[in-house]
Design brief:
Elements (H helix, E strand, L loop, with lengths): L3 H35 L8 E6 L6 H9 L4 E4 L5 H19 L19 H17 L9 E6 L10 H11 L4 E6 L2 H4 L10 H21 L4 E5 H6 L2 H16 L5 H10 L25
Parallel strand pairs: 1-3, 1-4, 2-3, 4-5
Helix pairs in contact: 1-4, 3-4, 9-10
Length: 291
């Protein structure tokens, strides 16, 4: 009987490792199968692009530029629901670790089946959720690049930043990040920040700036920087180069002169609820009291 305990534990570890490996293999197969079923084009999978920025940075203009690119679909803000999915997986993994001793592989256990909640299928499901919601009712075979822009990245806590983006890139292996910036002092004068004090607004913007710098430092090849001031005030040759480089980064193909001209025309179209510098309550002053 003295040898039974260690042998049982070893057997459970082997079964667990085998089960996790099988689950991850099934998840990869599922994700690939879903992509092939949707696509019908020659590329193996979608490329994903997320705009990482903060409020009133010109992100809706950037969204418009991306949607003017061939075979590209970039949606607007969605309350960063990806962060909730990340937290859900983290929570259930911690719960599973806590109750593993209660033998979730046994039908008589109160936690029966908990061992079947695996990272692989969760990753595949996250890809499926985002892909499906971005496409909506549009023909999936007409797009190669999918994504969205978001201004709530400050909600990612500093201690979870690295793990979050590692998880994100498991869900979206070909992801790229468009890092959209603007002078924070110009941003906080917008009605977007009217419910926050000046210090609170700058703190949230500062947190996104930290995340942008983290991405540049850890995965520069996945990042492309776009400054609002360069988009709206740049000289023609430099602006053409910037727009062409952005298009090449997003689509993976060199930009034609026709495409660059099309992108330049987008800059003349108002984007967002208050385009061309308009805001809610022109005479409103940013609160200076503490929250």
């Amino acid at each position: 009987m003295g040898q039974l305990g260690p042998m049982v534990r070893l057997s459970r570890r082997i079964r667990g490792a085998r089960s996790r490996a099988l689950g991850e293999a099934e998840a990869r197969g599922l994700a690939e199968g879903v992509r092939r079923q949707r696509r019908g084009s020659g590329r193996d999978s979608y490329r994903y692009v997320f705009v990482v920025t903060y409020g009133r940075s010109g992100s809706t203009l950037v969204q418009g530029l991306l949607n003017a690119m061939p075979r590209t679909l970039v949606r607007g803000e969605n309350n960063l629901y990806l962060l909730h999915l990340f937290h859900a997986l983290h929570a259930v993994r911690m719960f599973r670790r806590e109750h593993w001793k209660h033998r979730p592989d046994l039908a008589i256990s109160a936690f029966y089946g908990l061992d079947q909640i695996r990272r692989g299928p969760f990753v595949a499901a996250t890809n499926d959720i985002v892909t499906t919601t971005v496409l909506g009712d549009l023909p999936p075979e007409e797009y190669d690049v999918l994504g969205f822009k978001e201004v709530l990245w400050h909600r990612i806590e500093p201690e979870e930043t690295a793990e979050f983006f590692e998880w994100l890139e498991q869900c979206f292996p070909d992801v790229g990040y468009v890092l959209n910036t603007r002078d924070p002092q110009d941003c906080i004068g917008s009605g977007f920040w009217q419910e926050h004090t000046r210090d609170a607004a700058l703190a949230r913007i500062g947190r996104v700036v930290e995340i942008q710098e983290f991405l540049r430092q850890t995965r520069a090849e996945r990042c492309f920087d776009v400054r609002f001031e360069e988009l709206t005030g740049g000289a023609a040759p430099e602006l053409d180069t910037l727009l062409g480089s952005l298009a090449a980064f997003v689509t993976g193909r060199p930009a034609t002169r026709e495409l660059v001209a099309k992108l330049c025309s987008v800059l003349n179209v108002g984007h967002g609820p208050y385009p061309f510098g308009e805001t809610r309550g022109q005479k409103r002053k940013i609160r200076v009291d503490s929250e």
